[in-house]
Write a structure and sequence with these properties.
2 domains; 5-stranded mixed β-sheet; 14 strands; Inositol_monoP_metal-BS; magnesium; Inositol_monophosphatase-like; inositol monophosphate 1-phosphatase activity; Inositol_monophosphatase_CS
Amino acid sequence: MIGSANLNIMVKAARRAGRSLAKDFREVENLQVSVKGAGDFVSKADISAEAILKEDLMGARPTYGWLAEESEEIPGTDPTRRWIVDPLDGTTNFLHGLPHWAVSVALEHKGEIVAGVVYDPTKDETFFAEKGQGAWMNESRIRVSGRHRMIETIYATGLPFAGRADLPETLQDLARILPACAGVRRWGAAALDLAYVAAGRYDGFWERRLKPWDMAAGLVLVREAGGLVEPLEPENNILESGAVICANEPVFDSFAKIIRG
């Protein structure tokens, strides 16, 4: 692949962690799993994958900061750069034997996501992008879809579970968007949802209450694939608010108007 030294480090780390997860996925019924909270699980596989990522990424760039799902945040001696990592996005899918989950790695520089990798081991698809260099899946350049009629478009989102407080908002979203489009998908892995928007498989995506590691890599993928990305509430910061909306340019305004009500 062609890319910066940092991007190559990220891809290699994501693939190594993904191979480790794939081995555990084949024995998913035997995994020892502990409950973190309602509907939110962590497995030994998840923690092992994060250890691999930390070893590879921090080993290569020890001055960078570190933000990940399963470990304490580490401020970097270089305050301008930070790894943002989700070792296993789609944990519930993984634990149920559903082959739709991914490793997500992003690099933040001065508050901006400048590179991202989303690796799906079960399909052997590596999505990656770097600011100004376009977006790719394996060896192919990817672009957001070119659909421009709302009734032909499909969207992805997450659905609240286990009594989460944002259920009423999401039901209102669905009541508005479903009559206007060709469908909505809920596959349970935000990193892959964003990668699929970048690849033109979905025409757009929105979700609330995401963590930075759920979406950081996906944001740069969509932007570099030609999509528009905004905070769900325009005055907010995406990573801080956890609420995002994105789509291809022809439908973005119509889609955003519907979701924002």
